[in-house]
Amino acid sequence: MDLIRITDVQKTYKTGTVALYDVDLTISKGDFVFVIGASGSGKSTLIKMLYREEKPDKGSIMIGGINVAKLKDRKVYILRRKLGVVFQDFKLLPRLTVYENVAFAMEVFNYDKKKIHHRVMEVLELVGLKNKVRMYPDQLSGGEQQRVVIARAIVNNPKLLICDEPTGNLDPDTSMGIMKVLDDINKMGTTIIMSTHNRDIVNAMKKRVVVLHEGKIVQDYERGKYYEVV
Amino acid sequence: MKLFRSIGRYFRDAGKSVFRNFSLSLASISCITITLIVVALSIILSYNVEKMTEHVSSNTSIVVFLAEEVTDTQIDQVKNNIVKLDNIAEVTFKSRDEWAKETKDKDKTISIVIDSWPEGENHLLDSYEVKVKDINLIDDTASKIEKITNVAYINYGKEYISSVITIFDVIEKVCIGGVVALVLVTAFLIANTIKLAIFSRKTEIEIMRLVGASNMAIKIPFIIEGSFIGFFGSIIPIVLTSYGYNALYKFLDGRLFSSSLGELVKPYPFILYTSGLLLVIGLLVGMFGSYNAVRKYLKI
User: Fold this and answer.
1) Which of A160, A224, B186, B191 has its CA 20 to 30 A from that of A150?
2) Mean pLDDT value of segment B80-96
3) Residue A89, Cα to own-chain centre: how many angstroms?
4) What ipTM goes with this model?
5) Which DSSP letter does residue A73 get?
6) What CATH number should be reported for the domain whose range is B61-155?
């Protein structure tokens, strides 16, 4: 069953740069998809469109029954409650502890304290940070900070996890650790779409690979390897 | 239940944010404090000046002396003609006998002079005391009364009144002009300080949006936080107004000049109203400042 259906999507920025052109893509529930391509190929624009940070000029993007392209600004939160987002630059709140950063995402839903505590501890255990709940982001390593971000992204049980170059700032060993966490999450049923430049990760994971070049999807491999496609 | 929980959370988060972002909160609070002190001074000054103007208005009257040989009918006619004019608030008759009694009571020498007049003789004049509605038009009204038949002459301390009115008018205008300018400058300063405070929390707003908080759910804690800042910002001005005005009133013994003209507004309930007004202004400035600043970051 399709979770994401992108049809005939086009995006041109005000500067005249064509970011995406005639993009068609379908992603099924439970898939793990890498989006790769050189800088300026349009992968960041595509990822941003999935969580409605950018709007397409043309075409439709259906995610779990919501037409993202037609979603009004004030209704964006409806989409975002169905997905989690992980960034290269973490975007953690420095004045909040690990626990508070993760709980922050649940408090938006007005869950009671008990439920929040139970679920936050559960996801922090999943990402291996149960013993660092009281620490602040600047007391953690890059890999640990990214684990907090992943915990925050999955704490509300999203159907879709969008990762925008999550290992971009991490060393190879830490990156593989993060991929292991993401793989575990995927195995639990969450669909993951991840943009990356990291050749080793793509080759090691042997997942579906979508290649973007100058705003178009040029290749789509079921169990792709980096060297085959770039 | 969920609604109460969210309202509780909004207040708790807003309170926490004020202390977490203490330096920027303090900057916003200071701005509001300065503005409200200026506002408080302007309220105190303008209210007192207004009271003095009112005092001059209500206590100034034109004394209309009638011709020496007037009949009772003519006295009534003069009254009718005065009442017909615009700007007349009250007309009171004072007979020459009342004048004689009043003057005798006030001055011993004059009392001796009056007593020396033969029995039944009174060289004083009958009069009307005329109070006007608008003190600024007193000259015009006085000149119209002067032209009425059987009016001998009038007396109303023309120069004194016009100079007092001019002074009060200038004070009020300078006060309002200065305050408007100061309030505008500080309001601009507040708006920017709050904007700066919220700019530093761009990431927080971005994350709130990313995790699925609705625009309303993002705005409300910031608006509540703004009201907290407004509340804290109004404490010092309220304390200064309450204690300061009371102390000033006691120190000056309730009056600015020796005459009753300079009587100050009584501290109660004046300071209660002023404090309430300062609190409301503080809350509104804080809330609108925050609302405006956060709105900018909610546009996609």
Assistant:
1) A224
2) 89
3) 13
4) 0.80
5) G
6) 3.30.70.3040
